[in-house]
Amino acid sequence: MSIFRYIATLVSGIMTGVVASALYEKYWRQKLLDPEDSDSEYDLPTRHIYINSVTKLEDVYHEITDINENCINTNQIDIIIQSNNLLSIPWAIEVANTIKNSKCNTRVFVDGYAHGVATVIALSANELYLKEDSTLSTFRRVKSEVYTNGYKGVINDKYDADTIMNEMHHKDDFVEYNKLELRELGIEIYDW
């Protein structure tokens, strides 16, 4: 009998998380960051993309690629991240590379946390915004040089990728970094 209660509680928790994520994304898109709003000096709209732990990064990659092809219609892409590292490493690297090489200005807003490979995505943007209690984290140490080089290659060029890799990638334990600690690593953080 207790196994059924456990399974029911587990399924209920997962469904609650999925529904909450969907509602939260809808809230962001409709209330806080209306894509029709213009906050640029050129009076062009800003495009907004939301990434959470259940987001399909393949879709995000295609959305950013489509925006880049038509960068005439927008001058800025805002990416809002709240993710605890349940993202695909290969797609995270592709998304981060696309953000880093975007023709548009890219800004990442971390709402609470961007952990694991979500940290790599955050570090690829031109501008990084964190709330007072937001954190980034170490990202998974992998044996494959392909992923290690991929991580390093997508970190925005204005940062010292070697310092970041030594501190945030070459650790076996999970570590969170607050705004002060990130600034000490030479990462420019804007207040959100």
Low-confidence stretches: 28-44
Biggest pleated sheet: 7 strands, mixed
Helical stretch count? 7
CATH homologous superfamily descriptor of the largest domain: 2-enoyl-CoA Hydratase, Chain A, domain 1
CATH arch. level architecture of the largest domain: Alpha-Beta Complex
Briefly note the structural class of the backbone. Answer: alpha/beta
CATH fold call of the largest domain: 2-enoyl-CoA Hydratase, Chain A, domain 1
Helicity level = 40-55%
Overall description:
This protein has 192 residues and is of the alpha/beta class. The protein has two domains: 1-32; 37-191, Alpha-Beta Complex (2-enoyl-CoA Hydratase, Chain A, domain 1), CATH 3.90.226.10. 45% of the residues lie in helices and 20% in strands. It is built from seven helices and seven strands; from the N terminus they run αβαβαβαββααβαβ. Strands 1, 2, 3, 4, 5, 6 and 7 form a seven-stranded mixed sheet that branches.
Draw up the topology in text.
Elements (H helix, E strand, L loop, with lengths): L1 H31 L13 E7 L4 H13 L6 E9 L4 H12 L4 E11 L1 H6 L4 E4 L4 E3 L7 H10 L6 H9 L6 E2 L1 H6 L5 E2 L1
Parallel strand pairs: 1-2, 2-3, 3-4, 3-5, 4-7
Antiparallel strand pairs: 5-6
Helix pairs in contact: 2-3, 3-5, 5-6
